[in-house]
Amino acid sequence: MDVFTIYLPGKIHLVSLFFAVSVFLYGVLVQRGHIVYRVRNSVCVLAFSHLVYEDLFIVICRDVGVLTDHNTGNMIKLYLACSIFCLSCLGYFNSKHKVLSFEYGNLMGFLAISGIMVWSLIVMYQTGWFQGLRGFMDGTGDPHNLLWAVSKLAGLGFMLPLYDRP
Predict the structure, then answer these.
(1) How many domains, the chain?
(2) How far apart are CA 40 and CA 95, in angstroms?
(3) Environment class of residue 23 by beta-carbon count within 10 Å: exposed (0-12), middle (13-18) or buried (19+)?
(4) Model confidence at 73, in pLDDT bands (50, 70, 90)?
């Protein structure tokens, strides 16, 4: 057993929870303004990032045949609708309180981390990681490894460079 296969109750990976809390705390600590606004913005950015990552993950799982249930189309639509809602909220918050900054350096960081997320998902696809996930869902083996952790961290944190820092 390694650190990537430690689960909390409810089948939540300890690594996923650690990454989500880290991304949330980074967002709260790096922003300026009242703590309520910082928490709201961090939750919105984290939710958007997570929804985009999970949407990509589900699309790949569906393509590989890991998720063959007819409800995956509904999950994709729901995640996409929630992503659009979070993005709309972020746009509104940004117009009122300058949450995100789209300067050159911020955009390059955003593109770099987004590229790492896409690259890691492609490598996972090419190396058969998603077929291992199918086995995991059937009860044989656990494919979660460092590559999965990199994709999860990049998926949760690809919006972090866009924060407007003081």
Answers:
(1) 1
(2) 15
(3) buried
(4) confident
Query: pTM for the whole thing?
Result: 0.89
Cβ–Cβ < 8 Å for 133, 143: yes
- What are residue 27's phi and psi, to 5 degrees? -60, -40
Q: Are 12 and 144 in contact (CB under 8 A)?
A: no
Domain hosting 122: range is 3-162
List Cβ neighbours of 155 (8 Å cut-off, separation of 6 or more). 49, 50, 52, 53, 54, 56, 57, 117
CA gap 73, 98 in Å, rounded: 35
Tokens 């949407």 label which residue?
Answer: 55
Give the residues across from 139 on adjacent strands.
none
Structure tokens at 78: 């729901």
To which residue do tokens 């997320």 refer?
117
Q: pLDDT tens digits for 74-98?
A: 888 888 999 999 999 999 999 988 8
What's the rounded Cα separation, in Å, for the pair 137 and 120? 21
